[in-house]
Structures are given as C-alpha cells and as structure tokens.
Amino acid sequence: MSLLASLGLYGATNALNMREIGRQRPIMRNAKRAHRKLDAAYDAHIDEIKPGASVPYKIAFNEPPSGLEGWNHVRNNQNLYGGSTGPSSPPEIGINPNADRAYLAHEMGHLASQQTDIGHLVASLRENPKLKTALLGAMVTIPGVAAALETGDDDMDSSIALAALASAPTIADEALATRQGLAIMDKADMRASLGQRGKLAGGLLSYMAAPLLAGAAGNKVGNLFDEELPPAQ
pLDDT of 73-88, one tens digit each? Predict the structure, then answer.
C-alpha cells in the first residue's frame, strides 16, 4: 500500500469514527435508549464467561457541544464519547448518548474481555506505559530500518507487517472488545445489523490504519538510505 493510500485510509476511517461518536443528534438505535437492556445483558454475559463474577461500572453520558466546537472537542477527547478504562482502573465507560448503541456495547465488551485471561493480558499490555512507549518507538523506527536493510524499493510489505506487529496489543484489544460487544448485543436481543457491524469494523480499521501509515512512511524514509547492491558475479 502506498503512502498516499495509507494516508487516505487513515483519514477516512478516523473521520467516520469521529462522526459516529460525535453525533450531536440521537439516532433511533442510540446508546442512551439501549443502555438498560444492554446493561442487563452485560451482567448475564459476565456471569457466563466468569461464573459468579460481578463487574459493576460507572457510566458517563457525555453529549458533545454543538457546532465546530463540538467536533474539535470530540477529536481531542475521544474517550469521553466512546471509551472505557483499562484493567488497572475502576471500570468506567464514557459514551455519547446520541451514538449508535453498538458503540456502547463495544465499550462494555472491553470490560467483559478483561475478565478473560487472554483479554486481561492484552489489555494490560496495551495499558502499560513503558511497553506502549517502546512499541510506539518500534512502530516508527523498525519499518524504516527494515526498508534500509532490504535492497530496492519492493519492501513495503515487510515495513507494514513490522509496524502492525508493534500495534498488536491495541488491535487485539479492540478486536476482542468487538467480539464481546456483539455477544452482549445478542443477549440483549439487539443483534447487530450489517450496518452496525460495519461501523465497528471501521472503528477497528482506524486502529489498523495507523500502523499502515507508519509502515508506509518508515518505508519511504528507509528507502532513501538503502543502496542497490551490485548483482552477484
């Protein structure tokens, strides 16, 4: 994937996600309206994956300001409108009441995923500040190094793969949360429509777009420094 295409993917997926969690008017299947049924399904789902467990959470319904100010506020404070806490903090969810109920189910899915061994491990890795810093550094530098070490300019796949590996905890955590969130919606008799599944897939794609962009950019920089090796004699 070219750098230009990566930029386009990142911009499109991020804009779609911001539009959804930044809604200033409620849609029919909004988070506020569905909260009670989703909450009951969440409790049932937690008991199913971890029998006897109870994971109460605090929820803040945060409606964005109107106009351009609202869009800027959502962009700079995404966790207020579609976010949840990690395993080392008391369970809390911040959600825009106007957003699609699938986004609320997704955030509940984060809390549910943390009750499983794999989900807790992945979320802990994502939350670890030192690991996050190391992975961010790797995401920026390793693709460029790989491109510099590989002869020629046909090394984009390697660069993107290395950048995606550095983002693995985040991508895995989001994927697990979506899986658990869809199960919660099923239990609430609110099975996600194709459109809602597409929105959640787009949200996951927005996290995958970042390593694609980092890999493509690192590749371009790395290729400035590699040299064509002479053909073998």
Answer: 898 999 999 999 999 9
| pLDDT, averaged across the chain | 77
Distance CA 228, CA 121 (A): 43
Burial class (CB in 10 A: 0-12, 13-18, 19+), 129: exposed
- β-pair type (92-95, 58-61): parallel
Tell me, rounded to whole angstroms, the distance of Cα 46 from its chain centroid.
Answer: 22
Q: Distance (Å, rounded) from C-alpha 138 to C-alpha 34?
A: 41
* pTM for the model: 0.73
Domain boundaries, the chain: 3-225
Nearest to 174 by CA among 220, 149, 218, 209: 209
